[in-house]
Design a protein that fits this description.
Blueprint: E1 4-6, E2 9-11, E3 24-27, H1 34-43, H2 51-70, E4 75-81, E5 86-92, E6 96-102, H3 106-115, E7 120-132, E8 135-144, E9 152-156, E10 159-160, H4 164-173, E11 181-185, E12 188-190, H5 191-200, E13 206-210, E14 212-214, E15 216-217, E16 223-224, H6 230-235
Parallel strand pairs: 3-13, 6-7, 6-9, 9-11, 10-12, 11-13, 12-14
Antiparallel strand pairs: 1-2, 2-3, 4-5, 7-8, 15-16
Helix pairs in contact: 1-2, 2-3
Length: 239
């Protein structure tokens, strides 16, 4: 699969309908920054043993993504009263809702909230429910969201393996109002999932932000090299 890199923005060639908008896929890991330092620690199997450090690194990654997303928001100049006069300062106008898929996305979500501290929040419990053998479907047991109509949605999940969970979650959240634009934050993604999301979500209303795109997806839908099970690494093994 081929794609083109335009200043860190990966634009995949269109398939099918040639007039369909092409979704922007922004890989921050392609540029040298401290983000890659945190990603290296998240992937390191020895450093991963410290759950507190793993969660904190995810939180810091979320802060970096939020900062980068802030650059593409809508701004206008406001007058701010200081003790000595009036300062003209451009601040963003978007109403932001930060959403995450439980449970692996929670530290990432907190990092986004650390930057967008006045944002509302939405939470979705989505997971793979295996039917027979390797076959599974995505099950949603819980969703809580404010009205999303006309707002900027930032939907975070640490791992983007197949893209199915993110697609189902995105469509479920849209039942609570149509966002003006959605930013998907997925630090570790597979090539398969990136292509899947590009084909199944509206390219003119969604931007995908990643820090790494890994080439391999196993028959059990695990990303390789990936980083393992982010939820277990952050909060401990589940039954």
């Amino acid at each position: 699969m081929l794609w083109h890199n335009y200043n860190g923005i990966f634009v995949f060639p269109p398939t099918g309908n040639l007039i369909a908008p092409i979704m922007k896929v922004i890989n921050l890991g392609e540029s040298n920054s401290v983000l890659n330092h945190f990603m290296a620690q998240l992937r390191d199997k020895d450093i991963q043993k410290d759950m507190l450090r793993f969660r904190r690194n995810l939180e810091r990654v979320g802060e970096i993504f939020a900062y980068e997303i802030s650059k593409v928001l809508d701004y206008s100049v406001k007058k701010v009263q200081t003790p000595l006069g009036i300062a003209d300062i451009a601040t963003y106008d978007n109403q932001i809702v930060a959403a995450t898929i439980l449970r692996a996305g929670l530290p990432l979500h907190q990092g986004i909230l650390n930057v967008f501290d006045s944002a509302q929040s939405a939470f979705v419990a989505a997971y793979r429910k295996y039917d027979r053998g390797k076959d599974f479907h995505i099950n949603i047991e819980y969703a809580s969201s404010p009205d999303l109509t006309g707002k900027t949605l930032i939907l975070a999940d640490t791992m983007l393996a197949t893209g199915a969970s993110l697609e189902v979650t995105y469509n479920r959240l849209r039942e609570d109002g149509e966002p003006a634009h959605t930013h998907l934050v997925c630090p570790v993604s597979s090539i398969f999932a990136v292509d899947y999301i590009r084909k199944h979500l509206p390219g003119d209303k969604v931007t995908l932000w990643v820090a790494a795109i890994d080439e391999e997806l196993t028959t059990h839908s695990y990303i390789v090299p990936g980083l393992g099970d982010a939820g277990d690494l952050a909060y401990g093994d589940k039954i």
